[in-house]
Amino acid sequence: MKLTLWIFILLLPIVTHGQNQLAVVDKLTKKPIPGVVVKIQGQSNQISDSSGEISLNIINPTLLVFSHISYESLSILVQPDENLSVELVPALSSLNEVVVVGFESERSLVHQAGSISKIFEHELYRFNENSVLSAFNTKPGIRVEERAPGSYRVSIRGSSLRSPFGVRNVKVYWNDIPFTSPDGTTALNILDLSNIQNTEIIKGPAGSIYGAGNGGVISLESRKTVSENCFSSDLGIGDFGLLRYRLGIDQKIEKGGINASYVHQKSDGYREHNALDRKVFQLALHANPSEKQSLSTQILYSDLFYQIPGALNQAQVDEDRTQARPGSVAQNSSIAQKTLYGTFSHKIDLGEKWNNSTAVYVNTTDFENPFILDYKKETAFSYGGRSKFSYKDTWGKIPVQIVAGGEYQYGKTLAQNFGNRQGQADTIRFSDDLVTTQAFLFQQIEIEWTQKVLMTLGLSQNFGRYDINRTVDASRNDPSSNSKVFDPNIIPRLALVYKINNSSGVHGSISSGFSPPTIAEVRTNEGSINLDLEAERGVNYELGYRGTFGILNIDVAAFYFKLDQTITTFTNPEGVVLFRNAGQTDQKGLEVNLDYALFRSQSTLVQEVKLNHAFTGHYFRFSDFESGGNDFSGNQLTGVSPNILVNLLDIKTKLGFYFNVTHQFVDRIPLNDANTVFQDPYNLVGGRFGWRNTVGSKWDFEAYGGVDNLLDEDYSLGNDLNAFANRFFQPAPGINWYGGVKVGFRY
What pLDDT sits at residue 162? Predict the structure, then answer.
């Protein structure tokens, strides 16, 4: 008996060593989560009980992976004898769980004053992973066009009217840092999908916080934290010679970490002279020097090349929609762009009521663009930053938040235009030193008058200047200096939210819009300098409702934007795109987003069936526009489809298989101001199917395949507007397939 007792006492430490009690709870509500699957390397899976608790026998430090259909997966390293409360983040099944920064106000989306769409990482990866186009186009009021692979045009509520190519009239931020150049253009195409984790899009004027611009704001965010050591690799292939591969690594370092990735994407393209080759390298360092501070620094290098096939007329489309515009091949119409982008951001809590966030960047770009009519070379350098102070307090019994700050950008470009002799730069035509300076100060106060009524009042003061110093002019004109100064403009915004309850609310706002012409619109490719081009000005009135009802989310917004001095494009007989002010436009719109889970269960074979519907009704017209003796008043606004409907179906299974279907209807689009030429309506159907799972606790695998344009529709994506010689159409691919594999290893 004594011998047995001594053996038991000696073995007790061995038996009890490695006992772990884990409690899994909801991060927001702190309620226990039953049915959570815990994957352990070398052991069978464990499942949390009705109290959200799990008992494990861990002898050595072990990486555990927690997964649940209603929550984001989480992996943590657990030590022997360690008892933990594990918090899982909800998988955003309702609007009141979606937190957005919006107008520098970190609140749930359901109680935000303004039209804001959020695109999550998993939404970016439910399509072909070669661009952001498909994911962005699932949101109401937002349209991304691709005139050629790598050539994007972004329209938020019709803002691309003045963008023959590229991204204009929309402010873009990357990790809270200005990504739009000081001249008002944005090279969105230098980013790969892997450089973006989440996206917020503000629709309509947002000048009270983000300065000049009528279209809205796109805020892109890459991964800001490193939660585990991981190596990952992707390989994707597709029709038209598509090949994309990625290598990435995440490494934790004390309270921060480093992540790095390299992506190479290339394709031959659907049309003749339509190839793309893009290499992107990103290196980021994240650190938390103290509990009150965080800092991040990033380096992004992008080497982009793509060919420009050019627009076709209807006869050329009917003959061979894959052909390039005559002259594009011989003149090597293309863009080569190398960009180096460095950033540094710092956040600090300055006591209980104050905090500051400051970010700065420096950017250099080498740009080369042979075109049918000329050959352009540019070397650009820019720098800038943004800083804001936030103050939170309670005045009496009224919660108040004040935000104040400023943004400054400076850019200098050596821009040279040459003749184009069979794809080679010929005699110089003109050379300009371009200097752009823009800055604005912003202030905003939020007051919760009652528990149900929230008011936001904001305004900004905007400053801008262009200097165009022509040093070489091969024509008869002498070198000259030209300047365009935009006097300080005050842009106000007033918004109200009425909180019906915790899961629904009504919002309304009145905001001013101000958008000066970019330097690319003032200085055009044929050498003219149009200093008479005026800034667009307007006022936007908006009313909306958001609500969550169990499995159902609804987001509705109606707006009326009255815009003066609207900037539109036209083409001269030589084919050069020029710009003019087109008087007034009336822009009335309705945007609806509806999503709901038909079925969701952690324990069944099919775990989730989810539907989403997005409707865009943009009824935009010229209210007062005469040009060349023609009165276009009352016509539809050029380049804007009046009706767009998107339907999504997502199915997930317990075994890791998934299936996604997307349908998009686009109504006919007017292609000229006279409304005599239209893009026909079309329906696009696509889908992606695959298997995604974690093997053990260290390996992640995914294999997928998909199809775009399943109905093989003939359509044009990124039409040329008011095109000379009726060259309106940029034919898009018919039915095409893609697929890929992904592997991740935690160490």
Answer: 67
